[in-house]
Amino acid sequence: MTALIEALFLQAGYNAALVAVGAALLGFAAGAAGTFLFLRKRALVSDAVAHATLPGVGLAFIAMVWLGGDGRNLLGLLAGSAVTAGIGLLAVEWVTRRTRLSEDAAIGAVLSVFFGLGIVVLTVIQTMSSGRQAGLESFLLGSTAGMLFQDAIVIAVGGSLAVLATWVMRRPMTLVAFDAEYAAANGVNVPGIDRLMMALVMAVTVIGLKIVGLILIVAMLIIPPVTARFWTERSQSLIWYAGGIGGVSGYLGAALSASAPDLPTGPIIVLVAAVLFLLSLFLAPARGVAAAVFRHRRFQRKVHRRQGLLALARQEPIHDELTLRVLRSEGLIRADGVATETGRAQAAKIARDERRWDVAREIHQDTGLTGRYDGLTPIEEIFAPDEIAEFDRRIGGPRAIGEGL
Amino acid sequence: MSEPSVTLAASGGQAAAQARPDAALSLRGLTVSYGEKPAVFSVDAAFPAGQMTAIIGPNGAGKSTLLKAALGVIPRLSGEVSVFGQPLDAVRGRIAYVPQRASVDWDFPTTVIDVVMMGLYRQVGLLGRLTGALKARALSCLDRVGMASFSERQIGQLSGGQQQRVFLARALAQDADLYLLDEPFAGVDAATERAIIDVLKSLKAEGKAVVCVHHDLATVRDYFDNVFMINVRRIAEGPVATTFKGETLNATYGGRLAATHIDQLNLVEGA
Fold first, then answer.
1. pLDDT tens track for A139-177
2. Structural domain of residue A198, as residue ranges?
3. Is A278 a domain residue?
4. Does a structural domain hold residue A313?
5. I need a surface site. Which of A96, A102, A245, B6 has the fewest CB within 10 A?
6. pLDDT tens for each residue of A116-139
7. Local structure of A249: helix, strand or coil
């Protein structure tokens, strides 16, 4: 526990602090850049892009060794990964546009072919004399053991640029994601914006290779915006919410993995993000599962309460168990089913409101107000007191139950 | 209008419409195809400024395709488009498009007022601020379609008719001179239909051109000044009074309209 607290406050050593800050920055960038990917419903394209980075990493290593340099230079490896990721992305686009294959088929093909090629290249590197210690397989799932200050700088700069570009281009990207035809009619270059979205995804993928790895980066792009969607109804705030959720996941995940030996950083970050997702799924106020169940229950009780009271007013027997329970729990009927004093008053009121509505419909034939009748909203919320008085005048004096309605 | 009362094109392309100066939107030889099968073939058209025109034709006749190709939403195989006598890209700001309601995801995280503000994006650019004055303008557009009190709703909570009104408000926010609407009355309630047609007629009164893809032949006569009849090729175009007749309808719908139906359309034999 103390280890976790130390890690949370960046006191768990230089490397752990560097990883935590880097992971938070990466999480923020991935969440923000992933927002429009999610809104455009192209989440899986990023998976193809991510897997297409692998051959680039290997080929860049070989190229750098041939040129007599250090094959493990991070910037060089990332540049190589960006090249093949870009080719993979263009391949998905080309297959989708030029053939009759759908995008999911194109994604499947590109993802597996590029990943296979990447594994072959890595195997070849294993046979090279300088290749044994390359440790390139760490790009699959990320490895934070030897993270350097300059690696953190790469993440910070690349991530900031991705977030900045997302913010600057938020309007055209919103248009394209919401309504591509309208965007095109407004002169927005839709394929260009789509390519930009993917370029942002590619940038985040590439800078995330070190910490999260190419297999799990798609989670960092998608889980934060999906989670954020539970908390906001506006696309522009979604960018920041998703960034925040991604950043928190990165930071917490890195701290957790630093607090115990041999916990892998990338997978832990993804699991933290998944926990935030589950919490939102159940607990979010408007869109969460719990809120939906609660709303449904409350609505159901309202309907049963009204039907029960109407039955009381009409002196009809009630058989429905739930109706009886609702009426009993509100003290409207006694345990033996006979209406209480309150129950009688409420029943009279509800029966009266029904008659008021009948009159209202006669008077206000075309105002749209009567369209708001649902039997549940109190009539006082829809009509003013003087209007209701007018309805009552037309109905006649108040009557008690049993006088005949 | 010194137009001939009816222009029945024997085959598309022959009656090459000159780019008339009074045309808000004119098309020449417009052809669009999905694969090898043309959806719209060599269509000439001139939609007059200051008037309301209905594009009618059977399902699959290329009505929506014509509109989208004219706007560059889908690529055209050949043909030219000019708007107020100028190439499309020079006058984008003067055109407002209302797509079909079914074309978007209504669970998208956006509110009614945000959708209307989308109509201002082109004007404010990437970084321009959406000022209070612009928001007030968006609200007044919502008010025009009777939706001002819904401005903060998430769009998925609206009825179909309300969604259509919001789309119209977004187009109004663009303050355009040419309004192109794709089936604005499809699947909306009677009150919305009335609200929309009132707005469109007020646009016409302001001198704007309105072009609607329209499916309800019964209302063509009440709502529109002109009619453009298409079935892949252009069949006829002209004022409703002289063009909207049994002869042209038969040519457009290829006998798919029952004779009794045509009778019910209350066609005036004239010209």
1. 888 888 778 888 889 999 999 999 999 999 999 999 999
2. 2-270
3. no
4. yes
5. A102
6. 999 999 999 888 876 566 678 888
7. helix
Which of B:46-105 have CB within 8 Å of A? 68, 71-73, 89, 92, 95, 97, 99, 103-105
> Hey, is the C-beta of A280 within 8 angstroms of any chain B C-beta?
no
- Residue A86 and residue A166 in one domain: yes
What's the length of chain B? 271
Distance CA A217, CA A76 (A): 20
- Whether A175 sits inside 8 A of B118 (CB atoms) is yes
Gap from A230 CA to chain B (nearest CA, Å):
10
CATH, residue A119: 1.10.3470.10
Cβ atoms of B194 and B175 closer than 8 Å: no
Instruction: Domain count for chain A, please give it.
Output: 2
CB A26 within 8 A of CB A212: yes
CATH of region B7-264: 3.40.50.300
Q: Flag whether A403 is in a domain.
A: no
Looking at the structure, tell me whether residues A296 and A348 fall in a common domain: yes
H/E segment holding residue B160: helix B160-173
What is the tens place of the pLDDT at every residue in A177-225?
A: 999 999 999 999 999 999 999 999 999 999 999 889 999 999 999 999 9
- B121/A181 Cβ within 8 A: no
DSSP-assigned states of every residue in A83-97: HHHHHHHHHHHHHHH
Same-domain status, A206 and A145: yes
**Cβ within 8 Å, pair B73-A181:** yes
| ipTM summary value | 0.87
Q: Note whether residue A275 is domain-resident.
A: no
Q: In chain A, which residues have pLDDT < 50?
A: 400-405
